[in-house]
Specification:
It contains three helices and six strands; from the N terminus they run ααββαββββ. By secondary structure, it is α+β, with helices and mostly antiparallel strands. It is globular, with a radius of gyration of 14 Å. The chain has a six-stranded mixed β-sheet with strand order 2-1-6-5-4-3, with helices on one face. InterPro entries: NTF2-like_dom_sf, SnoaL-like. It holds the Pfam family SnoaL_2. This is Nuclear transport factor 2 family protein. It comes from Streptomyces werraensis.
Length: 120
């Protein structure tokens, strides 16, 4: 059964919370430690496969811009799937974006992450 509820961040799985905390401060090494070896990340219709490729993405993504990240929502889809909604404000085109980080967990690690625009 699917549950869609707004959650405070402290109710997210530790893996998701700690990955996101590392990602926000652009610590690709720490963020990568929460990934499975065969992790897949999809961002802006670009796919990165495996811990090494995903690490490079995490290290380089958005590095040409200055921006702030604020968590504005979170929800549990089921035991293995979680969504964190963030609001970015910065020097990138458009200046403001709301994104959903859709996590799929396996054995306590992130197996898949899809980053997509939050539906209006």
């Amino acid at each position: 059964m699917t549950q869609h509820t707004d959650l405070p961040s402290d109710l997210l799985p530790t893996t998701v919370r700690e990955f996101f905390a590392a990602h926000v401060v652009r610590d690709a090494d720490a963020a990568s430690s929460f990934l499975t070896e065969d992790a897949v990340v999809v961002d802006q219709d670009e796919t990165f496969r495996g811990r090494e490729e995903v690490h490079a993405f995490l290290r380089d993504a958005g590095s040409e811009f200055t921006y702030t990240t604020e968590q504005v929502g979170a929800r549990r889809v089921d035991d293995a799937h979680w969504v964190v909604t963030v609001r970015l404000e910065g020097t990138f085109p458009g200046g403001i974006a709301e994104l959903d980080y859709r996590f799929a967990l396996r054995d306590g690690l992130i197996a898949e992450l899809v980053i997509a625009n939050h539906p209006a």
